[in-house]
Amino acid sequence: MRKKDLFLMANQNLWRRKARTILTCLGVIIGTASIVVMISLGIGLRISMEQSMAQWGSLNIINVHPGMQWDESGNPTGEEKRMTDETVAELAAIPGVTAVSPQYNIDGEAKLGRKEGYLNIVGLDPAVMGELEFSVEHGRLLAPEDRFAIIAGSQVINNFWDERAARRGGMMMDGPQQQDPAELLDQRIQLTIRNQAGNERKQNFFVVGILDEKNMDRSWQVYASIHDVKRLRDFMMKGANNTGQMGPMAKEVMYSGSGMMVASTVKDSPSRGSRKDDRSNDYDSIMVRAKDVAQTKEVSQELRDRGFNAWSMADSLKDIENVSRTMQAILGGIGGITLFVAALGITNTMVMSIYERTREIGIMKVIGASFADVRSIFLTEAALIGLFGGIIGLGFSYGASQVVNKIGADYIQQGMMMGGPAANISVIPAWLAAFAVVFSIFIGLAAGLYPASRAIKVSPIVAIRNE
Fold first, then answer.
1. pLDDT value at position 201?
2. What's the CA gap between 409 and 420, in Å, rounded?
3. φ and ψ at 120, to 5 degrees?
4. How far is CA 95 from CA 27, 90, 291, 303, 407, in A?
5. d(CA 388, CA 11)
């Protein structure tokens, strides 16, 4: 029997009893919609958390600091991993790394006209700022030929305040006040720094750009050319007791497992560098960008294995993904129970159909239908029930997802920082939609196996005689 004839016959047989077929499909519809919506809630949770984390820092950026490997007793093993030009070349050669920039950091008092404040300036390579996911809301990014030009984070303007104006108004400002970041564009800021010998230097910077609010971890910092910051850093280090060292005690920056930065004071030791070890040109840190989130996790782990202190926002995704998978398994299991009940309904419908069509089955065998043909007819009918129920159930899933997202939008909006767009509670990706339809067909086929086996065992002579 041709497959086309089998399909047409199966379809006609289903709609002989329209009410029973519709009720059977209804069970598949409810089961499919339940499992899709349940799983979509877990997916929506993961995406929502990722979007929230992305506001506080790029998921593809890794911050690398000097590090040391330790044995189980807490003793250092091997040499300390320093931030040098050789380190920059080493990190750039790691597979999955797309951009690398060394960094220097300096702090100082600053003036913006009559306003006073402070600046935290990060020096990096202007040529790779675009690759490191820097983007501006106003102005432009730094160019390699810029000298003492800076781009400021969206909150840097709030580092400045006019104390005299506040006093004349009969009030004292209690901390930074919210101001428009665009006011800082094309302004000249005077930075005051002091070195270890007590000398003072003033340096003017010109603001050429204001960063957007995409990454909040950069909102309070100012970025300049690494060459300009290096000059100021060299001045600040003049008069230090040790070349390249800020004194007999040094601050070591470590990153805990949760990603929080922890500063601890440690004594200098031969393993960390002696007075003869010139570290004046060592970088404070290195910024690395990986190709994607998956590569970021791998590169970050490899850096830690090599002895560096490395951390990225993507490291925190592991716990979120575990929670998401657990929720999807639990919610999907609840929906799966509904689909299992629907499978029992399909089996019941097909068994009842066999009793009603005993004579028909007997005649089919008498005129030459093989066991495979009879089995195929019943399996096709069961698969069609799964197909119809899966497609309609998927449509209901999208509708339910829209309703859930609309109702929950206000609650999500209240939980988002900086007034960002609310994330969807329920997200149905293309793979989930395809899986739902295929799984529904599979459930129909599985439910039709037993009735199909019963059908091929019907004796044609007994069937015709009984009728």
1. 92
2. 12
3. -110, 105
4. 50, 11, 9, 12, 44
5. 11
Closest CA to 237 of 105, 88, 68: 105
Half-sphere exposure of residue 49: CA atoms within 13 angstroms, side-chain side: 16
**Position 298, amino acid:** E
- Token pair of 59, please? 């998921």
pLDDT digits (tens, 9 = 90+) for 255-298: 333 333 444 434 444 444 444 467 778 999 999 999 888 888 88
- Both tokens of residue 172? 């004292």
C-alpha 160/C-alpha 319 separation (Å) is 38
Neighbours of 171 (CB within 10 A): 9
The span from the CA of 75 to the CA of 160, in Å, is 45
The rounded distance, in Å, linking the Cα atoms of 432 and 260 is 36
Per-residue confidence (pLDDT) for residue 168, from 0 to 100: 57
Q: Which of 42, 57, 48, 51 is nearest to 411 (CA)?
A: 48
Q: What does the mean pLDDT of the chain come to?
A: 79
Cβ contact 118:107 at 8 Å: yes
If pLDDT is split at 50, 70 and 90, which confidence band does 179 have? Answer: confident
Q: Where are the domains of the chain?
A: 3-56+320-466, 61-291
pLDDT band at 202 (very low <50, low <70, confident <90, very high): very high
Question: Quick check: helix, strand or coil at residue 238?
Answer: coil
Q: Running DSSP on this structure, what letter comes out for residue 215?
A: -
Exposure of 416 by Cβ count < 10 A (0-12 exposed, 13-18 middle, 19+ buried)?
middle
- Quick one: pLDDT at residue 16? 76
3-state secondary structure of 296: helix
Mean pLDDT of 433-458: 84
